Amino acid sequence: MSDIPTAEGPLAIVAGGGRLPIAVAEAVKRRGRGVVLFPLRGWADPDAVSSYKHHWIALGQAGHLMRQARAEGCRDLVLVGSLARPPMRALRLDWTTLRLLPSIYRIYRGGDDHLLSGIARIFQEHGFRIVGAHEVAPEILISVGNIGTRSPSACDRTDIARGLDVLHAVGAFDVGQAAVVANNQVLAIEAVDGPDNMLARIAELRAGGRIPTSRGVGVLVKAPKPGQDHRVDLPAIGPKTVEAVAHAGLAGIAVVAGSTIIAEPLAVAAAADRSKIFVVGVSDRARS
């Protein structure tokens, strides 16, 4: 595609958890570009990265990452995969990162987009180019329409519109990328605990009789924040998202097409059909 950045040397992929970093690596390799993985200890899957050239790094080892990336001839970096924000005291800081500590402290004081955009800026100041995973592998973005065989009902679409409105409103404060709406009632908004814990909380509330709607009603809605840096923090779904939504007793998942990453789309479709829920990509214009 014409909008894929011009390749300059192999692509460095800083890999968090989940299947997505490998899906990006595979897509880049299919286009003929070399890939070097920098898997994060405690997050990346050792078996998944073993077939690629890779260098393990710990959180806080920015200097080690930069040196290894330069030695491999990498100028472009992709940051992709699941990762929870660690407390500052848990970081294993190398000497380069220690020198950057004042800047790191400043970017830690804010939401996730503020933090990730700040990290991207630090790497850019040291001569690297931060590239969005969707820029080098556009096929990972979900498109408009159903994934699987089920479709949202008219009631579901009302919930989707309300969810998009809510996320657009709170996103301006760098809060969450996900919300749960049922019968036009907002049941939850993603906070620092992340979407998985939010869905687990919905399941607990339902089991305790605290949610007035029956099983099979309600939608998980995901959308990027207004003004968000799309290179480093697009919302994503995968098979585990489908399982969590089914466990929470919801009807389905709706995400903004063209701005949401889907890991393992065939597995997502199969899981959705098996769980009898819908997964749909919608336009942001679906807001009410």
Short précis:
The protein has 288 residues and is of the alpha/beta class. The protein has helices at residues 20-30, 46-49, 62-71, 95-99, 101-108, 112-125, 133-136, 154-171, 194-207, 239-247, 265-275; strands spanning 11-15, 35-39, 76-80, 129-130, 145-146, 178-182, 185-189, 219-222, 236-237, 252-256, 261-262, 278-282. The chain is built from eleven helices and twelve strands.
Overall description:
The protein has helices at 20-30, 46-49, 62-71, 95-99, 101-108, 112-125, 133-136, 154-171, 194-207, 239-247, 265-275; strands at residues 11-15, 35-39, 76-80, 129-130, 145-146, 178-182, 185-189, 219-222, 236-237, 252-256, 261-262, 278-282. Helix content is 38%, strand content 16%. The strands form three sheets. It has a six-stranded mixed β-sheet with strand order 5-12-10-8-6-7, with helices on both faces. It has a four-stranded parallel β-sheet with strand order 2-1-3-4, with helices on both faces. The chain folds into two domains: 11-138, 3-Layer(aba) Sandwich (Rossmann fold), CATH 3.40.50; 141-286, LpxI C-terminal catalytic domain (Cytidine Deaminase, domain 2), CATH 3.40.140.80. The model has no long low-confidence stretch (mean pLDDT 88). Helix 5 (101-108) runs antiparallel to helix 6 (112-125), helix 9 packs parallel to helix 10 (239-247) and helix 10 runs parallel beside helix 11. The chain has 288 residues and is of the alpha/beta class. The protein contains eleven helices and twelve strands.
